[in-house]
Amino acid sequence: MNILVINSGSSSLKYQLFSMPDERPLCTGLIEKIGKEDSLIRHKTIREEDVQVTEKTLAVKDFGEGMKHVLALLTDSGLIKNTDDLEVIGHRVVHGGEYFSTAVVIDPDVKQKILGLSTLAPLHNPVNYKCIEFAEKIFPNAKQIAVFDTAFHQTMPEFAFRYAIPEKYYSEMHIRAYGFHGTSHKYVSERAMEWLGKPDVKMISIHLGNGCSITAVSGGKSIDTSMGFGPLSGLVMGTRSGDIDPSVILHLQRKEGKTADEMDKLLNNESGLLGLAGSNDMRDVMKMLESGNYDAELAIDMYAYRIKKYIGSYTAVLNGLDAIVFTAGVGENDALMREKICRGMEYFGIQLDAESNRIKSDQIREISEKSAGVKVLVIPTNEELEIARQSFELLREDPPCEQVILY
Ligand SMILES: Nc1ncnc2c1ncn2[C@@H]1O[C@H](COP(=O)(O)OP(=O)(O)O)[C@@H](O)[C@H]1O
Ligand SMILES: CC(=O)OP(=O)(O)O
Ligand SMILES: [Mg+2]
User: Fold this and answer.
1) Same-domain check for residues 123 and 28
2) Does the pLDDT at position 402 exceed 70?
3) CATH label of the domain that carries residue 364
4) 221 occurs within a structural domain
5) Residue 242 domain flag
6) Is the minimum distance from the CB of 181 to ligand 2 under 6 angstroms?
7) Residues 327, 203 within the same domain
8) Which residue among 149, 224, 322, 334 is the active-site one?
9) Measured from the CB, is residue 240 less than 6 Å from ligand 2?
């Protein structure tokens, strides 16, 4: 069975076609910087030893246009000959709220719920929904599966996921922390457990992409995470503020008369690295740092400092620490950022080996000093493979495990 996986994030669309259950990728692809003039499309077709790469830079204005490019690339490379060639499409969906704790087959009710959660994940659920609609139209006979970022965090204890506001907002309106990037945190935690040969490992998984989050994982289960009700709290991100005192929001609403939509745009689209240094792309900000730009230096220091604070608090929550995992665009590629985060944490047993940290690789690797108490790992995430696995498992069950409605 071949499964196409669509991973629409806040700045990119990633896709992979897998042969299952052998988990063999038949193609992988990425469209970066969607919405900009210089979007980059990179597609790789893999046929045994023969790998063919197509790369182009052009303006891809939105995710709908991105999906058309994906379809053209799959067809042009001969991976799909007609629209009945695909039986299953697995979609990343960022917010599943309290509705979904596992992968589900998408039906009209699931779609309505995904769309209904859009105000809580405005950079994600609307595009996830758009990609589902596109796939349904092009591949009407394929099973469409949703795999939720929130699912992995359903194991958080209530004292970690509740907010200290009146109880009725939880019981009546389901206001609580959900957590995101769960598919990625789950995938890298499992790889770390295999690598370390230790199933009861206490670890901190740090996902640094355009969206960023950090999760405390104990024995493979999420016990706390930095994103909350929506994917806006916690770390400094590409365009999102992360943690901010709510009184700033109230102040801006009162003083400048900002509406909810204006605040949404300010905190989700105009903040983070973009608001501090003028670009949401860490590669640009790092270049500005090299040329001595103060705003870039401050943005980078704030980004690293926020992560350091969370590492400290999650070490307390876990009552110890065996490993830290860096993953996603920045976490996998930016040695200077990893160094800034880990610097001055010897007290915790965290000590990087400068040389291994500088090695560029797309493989799992250890970058800590041999003698350090905490292993620091770089693990390339593979949300698409995790989505393919969960989609395959869902369809394999007999009878198929349908959606779990929690309320
Ligand atoms: N070599 C690199 N050095 C620093 N940052 C990088 C590098 N490559 C990618 N990135 C960063 O990774 C981010 C994208 O990460 P990714 O995990 O693909 O994000 P998302 O899935 O949230 O769209 C980019 O915004 C860029 O800042
Ligand atoms: C949840 C989230 O922020 O996802 P991404 O990093 O892909 O934008
Ligand atoms: Mg992502």
Assistant:
1) yes
2) no
3) 3.30.420.40
4) yes
5) yes
6) yes
7) yes
8) 149
9) no
Number of domains the chain is built from? 2
Give nearest CA residue, ligand 2 atom 7: 9
Residue 304 lies in a domain: yes
Q: What pLDDT is recorded for position 11?
A: 83
Ligand 1 site residues, Cβ closer than 6 angstroms: 9-12, 209-211, 238, 281-283, 286, 328-330, 333-334
Same domain, 345 and 227: yes
Clarify whether 243 is annotated catalytic: no
pLDDT beyond 60 at 404: no
206 and 141 in one domain? no
Predicted confidence (pLDDT) per residue in 191-244, tens digit: 999 999 999 999 999 999 999 999 999 999 999 999 999 999 999 999 999 999
pLDDT tens column, 152-197: 999 999 999 999 999 999 999 999 999 999 999 999 999 999 999 9
pLDDT at 84: 86
pLDDT bin (cut points 50, 70, 90) of residue 399 is: very low
pTM of the model: 0.95
Q: How far apart are CA 361 and CA 112, in angstroms?
A: 41
The token pair at 125 is: 């659920």
- Over pLDDT 90: what percentage of the chain? 93
Q: What gap in Å lies between CA 60 and CA 69, rounded to an integer?
A: 9
Model confidence pLDDT, tens digit, residues 276-305: 999 999 999 999 999 999 999 999 999 999
Report the nearest atom of ligand 1 relative to the CA of 280.
25
What is the layout of strands, in order, in the sheet containing 143-148? 50-58, 39-47, 24-32, 13-19, 2-8, 88-93, 143-148, 104-105
Dist CA 183 CA 92 (whole Å)? 9
Residue span of the structural domain in which 134 resides: 2-148
